[in-house]
TrEMBL record, chain A:
Involved in the maturation of [NiFe] hydrogenases. Required for nickel insertion into the metal center of the hydrogenase. Belongs to the HypA/HybF family. The gene is hypA. Signal peptide: none annotated. This is Hydrogenase maturation factor HypA.
TrEMBL record, chain B:
Keywords: ATP-binding, Nucleotide-binding. Signal peptide: none annotated. It comes from the Bacteria. InterPro entries: NUBPL-like, P-loop_NTPase, YlxH/NBP35. PANTHER family: IRON-SULFUR PROTEIN NUBPL. Pfam families: ParA. One of its GO terms (molecular function) is ATP binding. The keyword Nuclease does not apply. GO terms for biological process: iron-sulfur cluster assembly. The lineage of its organism: Bacteria, Pseudomonadati, Dictyoglomota, Dictyoglomia, Dictyoglomales. This is ATP-binding protein.
Length: 132, 243
């Protein structure tokens, strides 16, 4: 149910943006959802709709763009996609990364040189792309 | 439009039922911030205050050792509820790392801190005590950036080497107009007064001293024993300064 905590942030922030744009009603909410956080979109969508009730977000169409996560090794420069390492994780490790994506450094190493010193270049978590 | 991180909007809300937020900081490592954070939490709880304890030493979390709790997991409830340890609400990165090394660089420290504050649903608290990491980098700067009602408790030991760094933290906090409750002189050996004098010259409260206890390690993990130890008696007097 971590999705509810993030959904709350999205609703609050979207309402702030809508207010700053002087929108009377939000028609579209554009979200980018990174792979690493492994958001359950069904729960997330439900939470967003529940939390948007009785606000100008209530009737907005929520569009999700999933984006592939990439990792770049600071030690050897190798770049790889998160999904290449995903299957080696057990459920407990996946859950830890779901809650705190940076714990990826505990459970994943560069497939080329074995270093945990890499950066997440794309696809970490949830971002608002636009409120229309 | 630039991509916007939605998490920042809920951090203050997550803390709205927390009356006072006290980071225990030093700038210098090894001066006893963690033991003082844990003892403050235990002593304030004994006085029937509702206490939260957050370990923000992301590279070297240790409060779980002092509280003897490594194998619990925060309960999921629209986010995560802190682990309840003898009526202290406790949160630490340790619950997500299986006690393995967490290696990361600057921006990711920031993201970890933001994530922890976003997902943690603190109960109603009188005090949230935060065990800070050494240094004056991301965790300190982000905490100050994101939470605007911090009251710092500064810890040093009796050495000039530690005070050299601690002084810089104090100067920084004062320059930024961030409240400082005062300074605790920990592991006091000898009877020199230079730390007290330094506090006077820096214009902050010298809250008191805690003696150096050779047998302190014997109390770790036993919350009942540690609360009755001589070190608790000394900290108890200091607690009265800010309660």
């Amino acid at each position: 149910m971590h999705e509810w905590a993030l959904a709350e942030g999205v609703v609050n922030t979207a309402l702030e943006i809508a207010q700053n744009k002087n929108l009377r009603e939000v028609k579209t909410l554009l979200l980018k959802v990174g792979e690493i956080q492994q958001i359950d979109l069904e729960i997330f969508d439900f939470a967003l709709k529940e939390l948007s009730k009785d606000t100008i977000l209530e009737n907005a169409e929520i569009k999700y763009e999933n984006f592939t996560a990439y990792l770049l090794c600071n030690f050897c420069g190798h770049k790889w996609a998160f999904y290449e390492s995903f299957n080696q994780l057990n459920e407990e490790e996946k859950e830890a990364i779901h809650f705190v994506p940076e714990t990826i450094h505990v459970y994943i190493k560069c497939p080329k040189c074995g270093s945990p010193d890499f950066e997440i270049t794309e696809g970490r978590g949830v971002f608002i792309e636009d409120v229309l | 439009m630039k991509l916007i991180d939605p998490r920042l909007s809920v951090i203050e809300k997550r803390l709205e039922n927390v009356k006072r937020i006290i980071p225990v900081a030093s700038g210098k490592g090894g001066v006893g911030k963690s033991i003082i954070s844990a003892l403050l939490a235990l002593l304030l709880k004994e006085k029937n205050y509702k206490i939260g304890l957050l370990d923000l030493d992301l590279y070297g979390p240790s409060l779980h050792i002092l509280l003897n709790n490594q194998h619990s997991f925060p309960k999921e409830e629209y986010g995560l509820k802190p682990v309840n340890i003898n009526n202290i609400d406790f949160m630490s990165i340790i619950y997500f790392t299986q006690n393995k090394p967490l290696i990361m660089r600057g921006k990711e420290l920031t993201d970890t801190l933001i994530e922890l504050f976003t997902i943690t649903r603190w109960n109603s608290l009188d005090f949230l005590i935060i065990d800070m990491p050494p240094g004056m980098g991301e965790i300190l700067l982000d905490l100050i950036r994101l939470i605007n009602r911090l009251e710092f408790l500064i810890v040093t030991n009796s050495t000039k080497i530690a005070m050299e760094t601690v002084e810089k933290l104090i100067i920084f906090l004062k320059d930024q107009n961030i409240p400082i409750i005062g300074l605790i002189e920990n592991m006091k050996i000898g009877d020199q007064d230079f730390v007290k004098e330094k506090c006077n010259s820096l214009g902050i409260n010298y809250l008191g001293k805690i003696s150096f206890y050779h047998k302190l390690e014997d109390y770790y993990g036993d919350n009942k024993e540690i609360i009755n130890s001589p070190i608790s008696e000394e900290i108890s007097q200091i607690v009265n300064f800010f309660v």
